[in-house]
Amino acid sequence: MSANLRPSPLMALFSREIRVARRLGGGGTMGVIFFLILVTIVPFAIGPDLNLLSRIGPAILWIAALLATLLGLDRLFQADHEDGSLDLMLTSDTPLELIVLVKCLAHWVVTGLPLVIAAPLFGLMLALDPQALGAVTLSLLAGTPALALLGAIGAALTVTLRRGGLLMAILILPLAIPVLIFGVSAASASISATTPFWPPFLILCALTLATLAAAPFAVAAALRHMSE
Amino acid sequence: MTESPFSFPTFRLEAQGLAFARGGRTLVEGLTFSLTNGDALVVTGANGAGKSTLLRGLAGFLGAHAGTSLLIDEAGGRETIASQAHYVGHQEGSKPALTARENLTFWQAMLALPGVSSDLTPDAALARLGVPQVADLPVAYLSAGQKRRVGLARLLLAPRPVWILDEPLTALDGAGQALLTQLVKGHLAQGGTLIAATHAPLGIKSLQLELGGAA
């Protein structure tokens, strides 16, 4: 086995993360089921008003996606902290910022991507028309990475706390508000005649790119501090 | 047993006036030492004397309160100890849901130094540690001693010149302790350096550092 046949550290990390998520049976399926439950109970609460439902449908899908993303995020670094992996990663040659980025990417692939794929299906239950279904799916595809990256900051700050999940949610939800605002307004563009699709969608993309650039540094700094 | 396929380049590990604090309490102070290829430093001291703090500090997990610790190579290049060290602490860094082989494959990729590669496969490393049968078992099902052996296997898979071992004999049986002594001897013969905190003797010639301060 020669050195160049070996996977690069980041590839190895990515496949480890995916394996761990799949093997535990949690990860993606759990998030999607939670998403489904949230979307299902709303029509029961609101009643059989299809017009109302299709008007607030995009917002419901977005809130459900936000909450489903938070689910399981608290374990993102905590599990590695508890079993000592985090310490070992700190001694790796690979910068912690890149390790964080790959972990977030793997987390999104396992938990965020299934939500995006399931969104058009669940949107049908909220009486969304095809155009709105497309807009919701597209906005979730652009926005959920930002939610996962913001969540990673909260996960890193609460890495040493036993019951850090709630604190993490409190820390992160305010930061997620801009993403929610522009995500929902892009998603509901086809419903209301007044809002266009592209401006909020492009701002949403910009938010995701900005978090992508900044969050790994914030997370790595928090993890370095917390490992002391 | 350890046929050294290579040996580590010459280096010096220097600690100058190191001090580490934990929770506002200074545990280790004014520590100065120098180690080079083949040296071993065994840190002893009562519970709470600061052995783990010192080792975690040397591995770069704790910022030093004062002083510096560095690795200086032949050409005078300076590197942090962390980037060249294996740290074995109280946890193994293994994911319980993954098999021993999957865990070790990951750590081999993650911890390998550029330009230094080992020809060992995870399976061969497990065989060297006397637990070839666990390769396909999820780590969650292993005993404490087996987990420790799986954790120690990464020291062979990704050669690094400095081994920082915090109570490495924990959970190992008699044969396991003898095996670890053998591995350490092989590592030192390859020109590696060892810094270990332990209560039981490791069975190697070493410098001693006794930390004062009691529990």
Going by helix content, strand content and strand pairing, the class of chain A is mainly alpha
Derived structural class of chain B: alpha/beta
Mean pLDDT of chain B comes to 89
Task: Give the CATH class of chain B.
Answer: Alpha Beta
CATH H-level superfamily title of chain B: P-loop containing nucleotide triphosphate hydrolases
Q: Compute the gyration radius of chain A: what is it?
A: 19 Å
Globular, elongated, flat, extended or rod-shaped: what is the shape of chain B? globular
Spatial strand arrangement across the major sheet of chain B: 6-7-8-3-9
Total helical elements of chain B: 5
Q: What is the rounded distance between the termini of chain B?
A: 40 Å
Please give the CATH architecture of chain B.
3-Layer(aba) Sandwich
Rg of chain B over CA atoms, rounded to whole Å, is 17 Å
Gap between N and C termini of chain A? 37 Å
According to CATH, the fold-level topology of chain B is Rossmann fold
